[in-house]
């Protein structure tokens, strides 16, 4: 081979390697949507969502307190303010009482780790515009210059990562009452001053400063993605950012993007598909069924109990989704004991049944109406049948699995193989032991081929 041919061949090899291992994404949805979802996200299955901000101070009704009080003019919010605060009291007057004096990020991280969650998503900024870090574009409307006087995003992130959990950040693109945003809105979003001066600088700052594994975008629905410059940001995020190889994004990047564009799909709050979606998705659900933020007026009957949470999570994972469960801390930085109890209960169940959840795939059949509801997950040649209620009988039929002479059936948490026999057409009948007590009211049968 002549030197010239050698160098030409080497150049072609380098160009080929670059195209294989250094894919560049262009700022359009066709290119961005072709990016493979980083594997870690599908493997982890379960995460914790944390809604925390100035709305945690009134802690009444909803994290949309400011909007419901001043725009929707809901009578109960107006009456709450009349009864409890002096005339002229403004929403911004709540910020100094967002003091977070009991906030211990390591304590939070311990609770989240004990829940069995593998990723945590914190609100960096909700629609009220208050940032939980010292954003340079937020003036004094942030947690470093006001309220807690500390970097909440950074403090929690450090504690989360010490436990090898993935750390994500929720960020609202829009702000209800920011005058620059309202000016852009008044122009029919023909101007982009808010995007250029506030929304995008914040996103770039969050990524460069905290290197999140996940960005949970929100507050996008009033304007198209072209207003938000979403595709430009995502192209930078996937090509050149410090988290380009690991970062995961959702689908809230502009009007019409839900369930259509982005990394994985949220589609809508508490999204619950009726069948197996053809794209990776996530259900965000709150322990408090009324609010994402902490409410002092919440009632026990309004909270999800442990069996309901486990049933919901199993349903989501069987249909190929991730389950992001929300808790709202108090303004002084505490996770309410009732929320902690739920999280630790999930962790106790996952310690026994986690192999039927983590790193699993949807099976060829997702559910079966047996004596009690059964949901299926799979991992290689292993099939898991999760019973979300006690069948209250010793023999139990599964009609869907195909068996062989080599099939071994066990109950997770019980090392002894169970006796079983094939049914005439397909499926099997299993002799169940006395099921151990489970506050979650769910048990898993493992079928090894």
Automatic annotation (TrEMBL):
Site (May be important for catalysis): 284
Entry GO MF terms: alpha-L-fucosidase activity
Signal sequence interval, chain numbering: 1-20
SMART domains: Alpha_L_fucos
Cross-referenced Gene3D superfamilies: Glycosidases (3.20.20.80), Golgi alpha-mannosidase II (2.60.40.1180)
TM annotation in the entry: 44-69
GO cellular component: lysosome
Keyword Transmembrane attached: yes
Superkingdom per UniProt: Eukaryota
Catalytic reactions of this protein: a neolactoside IV(2)-alpha-Fuc-nLc4Cer(d18:0) + H2O = a neolactoside nLc4Cer(d18:0) + L-fucose; an alpha-L-fucoside + H2O = L-fucose + an alcohol; a neolactoside IV(2)-alpha-Fuc-nLc4Cer(d18:1(4E)) + H2O = a neolactoside nLc4Cer(d18:1(4E)) + L-fucose
EC number: 3.2.1.51
InterPro entries linked: FUC_metazoa-typ (IPR016286), Fucosidase_C (IPR031919), GH (IPR017853), Glyco_hydro_29 (IPR000933), Glyco_hydro_29_CS (IPR018526), Glyco_hydro_29_N (IPR057739), Glyco_hydro_b (IPR013780)
Compartments where found: Lysosome
Annotated family: Belongs to the glycosyl hydrolase 29 family.
Complex formation: Homotetramer.
PANTHER family assigned: ALPHA-L-FUCOSIDASE, TISSUE ALPHA-L-FUCOSIDASE
Purpose: Alpha-L-fucosidase is responsible for hydrolyzing the alpha-1,6-linked fucose joined to the reducing-end N-acetylglucosamine of the carbohydrate moieties of glycoproteins.
Stated name of the protein: Alpha-L-fucosidase
Record lineage: Eukaryota, Metazoa, Chordata, Craniata, Vertebrata
Underlying gene: LOC107556374
């Amino acid at each position: 081979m002549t030197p010239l041919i050698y160098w030409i061949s080497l150049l072609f090899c380098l160009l080929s390697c670059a195209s294989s291992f250094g894919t560049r994404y262009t700022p359009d949805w066709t290119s961005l949507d072709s990016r493979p979802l980083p594997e870690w996200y599908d493997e982890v299955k379960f995460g914790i969502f944390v809604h925390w901000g100035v709305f945690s101070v009134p802690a009444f009704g909803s994290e949309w307190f400011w909007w419901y009080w001043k725009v929707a003019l809901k009578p109960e919010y107006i009456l709450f303010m009349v009864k409890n605060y002096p005339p002229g009291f403004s929403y911004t007057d709540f910020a100094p009482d967002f003091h977070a004096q009991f906030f211990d990020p390591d304590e939070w991280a311990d609770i989240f780790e004990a829940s069995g969650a593998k990723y945590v998503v914190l609100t960096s900024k909700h629609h009220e515009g208050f940032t939980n870090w010292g954003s340079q574009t937020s003036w004094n409307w942030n947690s470093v210059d006001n309220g807690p006087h500390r970097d909440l995003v950074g403090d929690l992130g450090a504690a989360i990562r010490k436990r090898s959990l993935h750390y994500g950040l929720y960020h609202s693109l829009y702000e209800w009452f920011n005058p620059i945003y309202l000016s852009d809105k008044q122009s029919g979003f023909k101007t982009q001053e808010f995007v250029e001066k506030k929304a995008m600088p914040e996103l770039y700052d969050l990524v460069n400063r905290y290197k999140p594994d996940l960005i949970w975008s929100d507050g996008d629905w009033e304007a198209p993605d072209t207003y938000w410059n979403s595709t430009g940001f995502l192209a930078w995020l996937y090509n050149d950012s410090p988290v380009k190889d690991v970062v995961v994004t959702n689908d809230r990047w502009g009007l019409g993007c839900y369930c259509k564009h982005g990394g994985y799909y949220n589609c809508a709050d508490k999204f619950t598909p009726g069948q197996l979606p053809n794209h990776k998705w996530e259900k965000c659900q709150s322990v408090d069924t009324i609010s994402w933020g902490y409410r002092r007026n919440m009632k026990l009957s309004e909270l999800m109990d442990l069996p309901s949470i486990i049933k919901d999570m199993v349903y989501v994972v069987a249909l190929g989704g991730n389950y992001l469960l929300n808790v709202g801390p108090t303004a002084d930085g505490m996770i309410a004991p009732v929320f902690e109890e739920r999280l630790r209960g999930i962790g106790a169940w996952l310690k026994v049944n986690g192999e039927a959840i983590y790193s699993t795939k949807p099976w060829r059949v997702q559910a079966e109406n047996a004596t009690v509801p059964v949901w299926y997950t799979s991992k290689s040649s292993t099939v898991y049948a999760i019973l979300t209620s006690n069948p209250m009988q010793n023999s139990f039929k599964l009609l869907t699995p195909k068996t062989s002479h080599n099939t071994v059936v066990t109950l997770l948490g019980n090392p002894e193989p169970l006796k079983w026999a094939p049914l005439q057409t397909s499926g099997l009948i299993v002799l169940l032991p006395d099921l151990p007590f489970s506050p979650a009211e769910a048990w898993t049968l493992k079928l090894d081929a």
